[in-house]
Amino acid sequence: MKLALQEGLYDDGGFGKFVERAQEWGFDAVEVWGEGLSDRLTEVKKVVSDAGMPVSSICPGGGGIRGSLLSGDEAGRSAAAADIETLLEMGAELGGAGLIIVPEFGVEKFMALYPDLSDFESRKRMFADRLAPLAEKAATLGVDILIEPLNRYEAFFMLTVGQAAEICRLTGSPAVKVMADLFHMGIEERSVINALATNSGYIAHIHLVDTNRKLPGFGDRDFLPVFKTLDEKSFGGHLCLECGIPGDPFHDIPKSIETINMILDKL
To answer: In this structure, which long-range contacts are made by residues 189-193, counting pairs with CB atoms below 8 Å and at least 24 apart in sequence?
Structure first.
């Protein structure tokens, strides 16, 4: 399986050093930060090209996409659509890097312990319709839109991988796929393994994280069933580290990779 490392998890003296270190540690690709990417796109393209390091994906971060496609405000919807289009174009320039999209994040609504209050059913068609023209552009560019469900404490819409897969079906576009984050899944899925297996045809990218949102191996998740399920379903995307680092990154990240590889060797 292919491993990727997300930019920005630690300070390593610039993007070039980050890519160099990722290669030294044995990563197959990097996930770049979308916020401010347009201002440094030339540098990022040169670094990854010179290093021969693929860019698996773009994570917009908190400010990479203004507004939301689900916004009740037209200006907010237009801003989100414009930013998504720009990031899709940059993804194409970066060799077809997929664009992660969180439909709704940090909203005023708050479900606390009541995920059943989610308004997914009432807004799923609206979201799919608003996503459709962007999906058409993504397909033309040869990049994927990777929609990411969050947990009930961070979003009000689309909490599970199954719901994300339903959005894929509603858009009818092969360019719309699912980004599954194991931390969010650990909160919302009745069974992480069943959710991965059932929706494997739509999952194109995974954020690999332990139960405590730290590096794999620094929590108590059993990753063997996860990797076994992905292997059985012929998962071809990247497993990307997007997680907290409990201590020294130059010790903990290699330790985490060692743990991951030990588990993969058991398959």
So the answer is: 189/160, 189/161, 192/226, 193/225, 193/226, 193/229
